[in-house]
Design brief:
This protein is mostly helical and 86 residues long. The chain has 3 helices and no strands.
Length: 86
Amino acid sequence: MVEAIGRCMICRGRCFNHVWLCQSCYDQFPELQGKYTTWPDWARFLKNQHKSERLQENAVLENEIEFPVDLADLLDVIDDGQDDDE
């Protein structure tokens, strides 16, 4: 489940993946409208935590098996073609 990618670092509302805030939080926290270096400590901490979550989620997504898998195809791969009774 994706909980950080494309989510606001404050309210977890939807936002573009290349930004850290949704429009509502951007408007509500004018101190976060400037450069990252001018953000208050709490916001920089929260952004770093959220960045770590996004990186972890990306790593998981890159390693997941895509579903749905056709069960018959999967069984054909597992089965070596030999009847177990022979």
